[in-house]
Design brief:
The complex is a heterodimer of chains A (197) and B (183). Chain A is an all-alpha fold and 197 residues long. Helix content of chain A is 80%, strand content 2%. A two-stranded antiparallel sheet of chain A has the order 1-2. Chain A is globular and about 50 Å long. Chain B has a single domain, classed as Ferric Hydroxamate Uptake Protein, Chain A, domain 1 (Beta Complex). Chain B has two helices and nine strands. In chain B, the strands form two sheets. Chain B has a seven-stranded mixed beta sheet with strand order 3-2-4-1-9-7-8, covered by helices on one side. A two-stranded antiparallel sheet of chain B has the order 5-6. The chains are: A mainly alpha (197), B alpha+beta (183). The interface between A and B is medium-sized, with 26 and 27 residues.
Chain lengths: 197, 183
């Protein structure tokens, strides 16, 4: 099912105009939401975190934040369950997107993705994301419950980290190529703008 | 790099899925150390139950249990009624005086049997483990009031349990309490 979605998204991407970065972003959001819902049987294994890092690295922080918010809200409202944690997830993924944008030079070198760095970052951000979202329990319980709660969730943190490495290994290169096609048009545009001015 | 990353990532995830239940058990056990034992969790219970395991079920005031509707009835591990504490400002029953249980669900099923069927437990095992839907004939889904929903809430030694009853690891002297929670 996931591969059918990936295949159809790749097909739709080809029909996008080069300049259409927002169209690309909508496709990524669809992929993120459906990936999250379809991977639900394995807890915390979903493509959103890697998508957000790549979006940050290729398209910059604002678009990554937009993607983070859209995916968190849409997938929670449609299927996963909506609550105070949605805002924590949106902020968490948004922050990961900002990190992706800040580390863009390190992650994409000479138009090529550095998979080892990306895998490391994806694993670390998976764990950081879970811990951040766990803070939402403080709305209901005291601070003393946080340590046992985090300890109980450690397996789920590992699921997120390992799942992210899996998505980096299998998905990052083709996605990076697609994104880089749309990014190059942006830099081309800015060059054109520069010439016009 | 990507040559070995692909197979390695699959192997690592599969290994994690296989090992997750045993890691989770170990972590659940470890995390109980960090939950401060509430010394008052034995408050109001018979003194002979100190250092022993106890299970209490409290019913809401507008849906009291037909049998345990005056104070909290104390039932020993042999099924004998010890007495009723009417000063606890709630109604229900406690079954206590047990030793040696480590699995929460085992303890709950065995201790409630001592109440002559008045505290029978209905649960189903879902993706997230055992979910208790009925205790002593009360299913919170039937409750109505100024709330969105109600459920059987689990306390472990006076604090909200971090895990469900199926994953709860018990020590000697633990007090397990069920009461209606709402959201």
């Amino acid at each position: 099912m996931l591969s059918i979605i990936v295949f159809s998204l790749i097909r739709s991407e080809r029909s996008l105009r080069d300049q259409s970065q927002w169209g690309m972003l909508i496709l990524l959001a669809i992929f993120g939401v459906s990936g999250r819902i379809l991977m639900e049987p394995i807890p915390n294994v979903q493509p959103v975190t890697v998508l957000v890092i790549l979006t940050g690295a290729y398209f910059g922080a604002p678009r990554a934040i937009a993607l983070a918010a859209i995916v968190a809200l849409a997938s929670n409202v449609i299927f996963m369950g909506h609550g105070p944690w949605t805002i924590f997830q949106a902020i968490g993924w948004g922050a990961i997107g900002i990190c992706g944008a800040l580390l863009s030079d390190k992650l994409v070198v000479n138009e090529k993705l550095r998979l080892n760095r990306l895998a490391l970052m994806a694993a670390a951000s998976g764990i950081a994301f879970n811990w951040f979202v766990s803070l939402s329990i403080l709305l209901d319980t005291g601070f003393s419950m946080l340590v046992p709660y985090l300890l109980n969730g450690l397996v789920f943190d590992l699921y997120h980290a390992f799942g992210n490495i899996l998505f980096v290994a299998w998905m990052a290169t083709p996605l990076g190529e697609i994104m880089s096609r749309h990014r190059s048009s942006q830099s081309l545009e800015s060059v054109r703008d520069g010439v016009a001015n | 790099m990507s040559d070995w990353l692909k197979p390695a990532s699959v192997v690592a995830l599969v290994a994690l899925i296989l090992l997750a239940p045993s890691i989770q058990d170990r972590l659940a056990e470890e995390s109980t150390r960090y939950i401060e034992d509430n010394e008052s969790s034995h408050h109001g219970l018979p003194a002979e139950w100190d250092e022993q395991q106890v299970l209490c079920i409290y019913f809401p005031s507008d849906s009291p249990h037909s049998e345990f509707n005056l104070g909290v009835t104390m039932i020993g591990s042999d099924g004998e009624e010890i007495g009723t504490n009417e000063d606890l400002n709630r109604t229900g029953a406690c079954v206590g005086g047990f030793e040696g249980y480590s699995n929460g669900l085992d303890f709950m099923m065995n201790s409630t049997r001592m109440a002559n069927g008045h505290l029978s437990v209905g649960y189903e095992v879902g993706q997230w483990g055992a979910f208790v839907h009925t205790i002593g004939g009360l299913n919170p889904e039937t409750l109505t009031g100024d709330f969105n929903g109600a459920y059987w809430h689990l306390d472990h030694n006076g604090a909200s349990s971090m895990v469900g009853i199926g994953d709860l690891v018990m020590s000697e002297g633990d007090v397990i309490e069920w009461s209606i929670g709402t959201w």
